[in-house]
Amino acid sequence: MSLTGKISTELPVHATAEKWFHTYAKRLHHIQHVAAKVHGTKLHEGDDWHTTDSVKHWTYTLDGKTVTCLESIESVDEENKRIVYKMFGEAVEGKYKPLKLIFEAIEKDDGKAAIRWSIEYEKLREDVHPPYAYLELYDHVIKDVDAHIVEAEKNSTK
C-alpha cells in the first residue's frame, strides 16, 4: 500500500474561469463569508493574504467536525489560472505530511468553466485513509462560491 497519492475533484461552474481565479488570487479572505462549511479565517503570519510569505488560519467543517489548519501559498500561475497551496497544522498533522492543494480555474472549449482541486499527500502511517473528506469539502465550497460570484455579477449589472 502506497503512502503517497494524488486525488482530485472537478466541477463545472457558471462563473467564468477568470472570475474564479480573481476570487482566489485577490479575494481569498471573502470565502469565509460565502462558503457554509468555512467558519472563519484570519492572517496568522504576514501582512497580505495573497503573498507566499503569509500564513492563514482556517476553521471549517470536515467529516462533521469543526477543525482548523494553517495554509500558505506556494505559487501563483496567472496565465494558467493555477494556485498551489500548502496546508498544515491541526487537521493535517499526525496523519499526513503537509498537503499540497492545487486550485485550477479551467476554461472549457465550449466557453464554460470548471474548477479543479487536487490534493497531493503523503500519509504518515498505513492506517490513515487518503484525504477524501477534503474533496467533499471543496465540492461544497465550489457550489457556494459559484452561486455567490454569479449573484454578485447579476447585482452589478442591474
TrEMBL record:
UniProt GO BP: defense response
Q: Which InterPro entries match?
A: Bet_v_I/MLP, MLP-like, START-like_dom_sf
- Give the top-rank taxon of the lineage listed in the UniProt record for this protein: Eukaryota
Q: Which residues form the Bet v I/Major latex protein domain?
A: 2-152
Q: Which family does it belong to?
A: Belongs to the MLP family.
**PANTHER family reported in the protein's UniProt record:** POLYKETIDE CYCLASE/DEHYDRASE AND LIPID TRANSPORT SUPERFAMILY PROTEIN (PTHR31338), POLYKETIDE CYCLASE_DEHYDRASE AND LIPID TRANSPORT SUPERFAMILY PROTEIN (PTHR31338:SF16)
State the protein's name.
Bet v I/Major latex protein domain-containing protein
Which species expresses this protein natively? Vigna unguiculata (Cowpea)
